[in-house]
Amino acid sequence: MVQSSFKLNTGASIPAVGLGTWQSSPGAVTDAVYHALKSGYRHIDCAYCYQNEDEVGKGLARAFHEGICKREDVFITTKLWCTFHRKVEDNLDLSLKSLGLDYVDLYLMHWPCPMNPNGNHPLFPRLPDGSRDLDKEWSHITTYKSMEKLPETGKVKAIGVCNYSVKYLKELLPNVKIIPAVNQVENHPYLPQEDLLEFCKSKGILLTAYSPLGSTGSPLFAEKAVQAVAHKHNVSPGTVLLSYAVARGNSVIPKSVTPSRIEENLKIISLEKSDLEALGSISKDQGTKRYVNPPFGVNFGFPDQQEK
Q: Which residues are catalytic, by number?
C-alpha cells in the first residue's frame, strides 16, 4: 500500500507528493500550478526567494475560482528568506500578499543562515570581496524563536526548517518550544542522508525531499540500478525515484512545468525491499553527491561537506 500522505507532529496531514516551484521558468508557473491542482495535486511548495509567488498565486486563484479545489484542501508551504531573519513576519506577509492567501499551512526557514537585511541586494547581499554578506550578530535559533510566534497570528498552521543537519538540529531543539514539523533537505539515492532521516524520525520531524531526481538534468535517470527497478515495474526512472522517497517515509516535491511530467510525478508505486536495497547501493558504490550547495561560506554541518 502506497502512502498518499504523512501525519505531521501538529496532527495535520501533508500529501506525500507536492509540486516544487524552484527554478520554474517565469511565465510557466501559473499554468504548472493550475495543471497540478487539476491533475489531483493538493500540495504546493513555494518560497519568497524563488520570486515567482505571484504566479503561484494566480494558479491557485484560477483553480479555486473554477471549483477544482478549495483553499482548505491544498497544503501550501512557503519559506523565510535569509535577509529577513530579523523581520520574520514581514517576509511572511510579503509571501501571503503575492500568493493571495490569508495563511499558509507550513512556514519554513529556508537556510539557517541570516544575511544582512540592509546589504547591497535584497536577496543576495555581498561584501566587496564577493562573499555573501552574513548577519553574524544574529542566530538561526533566534530566528526560529521569532517564527514560534507565527502560529498564534493565524497566518501559519505549522513551522519548520530547511537544510538543517543533525548538528544544527541539535543546536536548535534544546532552545525552542515548538519542534519543527518538517526539515526540507536535498535527498535522493546519491545523497540518502540516513543519519539525518533517522534523527528526524526520532524527534517527530518529517523529512521532505527536494531535488529528488538529482537536480537539473535528472542525472539519476542514467543509473543502472534506477533503470533496472524501472524496467522491473514497467515505470519511468522518475516514478522510481519519487517512490523511493515516499517508501522511506519522506514527502517529496518534484519540480516540473511540463503537463505530462506533472501528471506522471503523482504516480507513486510500492517498492519492494530489494528495490530499496538496490537504490541504496548507489551512494555506497559511488560516494555521495550533493547538487545544491550555495556559496554562503557557512559550514552547515553536513557530513558529506566536511573536509576529509
A: 50
